[in-house]
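To the wet lab folks,

You asked to see what we're planning to order before we commit. Fair enough. Below is the target structure as tokens, and below that is the sequence we designed to fit it. If anything looks off to you, flag it before the synthesis order goes out.
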């Protein structure tokens, strides 16, 4: 559910925090979030899905479909309502659960755990 300014209700603590934030700082946060989303989407579509074959047709998946799926995954990972935390690790088991429907194969080029943690924490 997307909240708009008309439906957003803030508690007193949130209002105090918001009143003390600099608009430039808020802009930086938004730009960092967008950059993280873009970096993750690009990495998934270019590297993770590089050799993706459609299981129903046996043909390579189109760039458009790879990009769409990467966007879906980026949205899943950036859902603060779901994860409830900015810096909490999301486990492999959680990501591959039926509710998330993500498949993480072992033949993906190695990504250092610190890089993956950076992508997930910066992305939210």
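Sequence we intend to order:
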């Amino acid at each position: 559910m997307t909240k708009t300014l008309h439906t957003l209700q803030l508690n007193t603590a949130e209002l105090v925090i918001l009143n003390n934030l600099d608009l430039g700082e808020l802009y930086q946060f938004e730009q960092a979030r967008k950059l993280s989303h873009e970096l993750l989407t690009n990495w998934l579509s270019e590297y993770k899905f590089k050799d993706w074959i459609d299981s129903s047709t046996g043909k390579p998946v189109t760039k458009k479909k790879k990009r769409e799926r990467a966007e879906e995954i980026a949205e899943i990972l950036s859902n603060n309502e779901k994860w409830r935390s900015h810096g909490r690790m999301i486990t492999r088991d959680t990501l591959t659960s039926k509710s998330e429907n993500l498949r993480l194969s072992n033949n993906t080029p190695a990504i250092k755990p610190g890089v993956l943690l950076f992508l997930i924490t910066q992305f939210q």
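Structural context that might help your review: The chain has one domain: 12-123. Residues 12-123 form one domain.

Thanks,
Computational group
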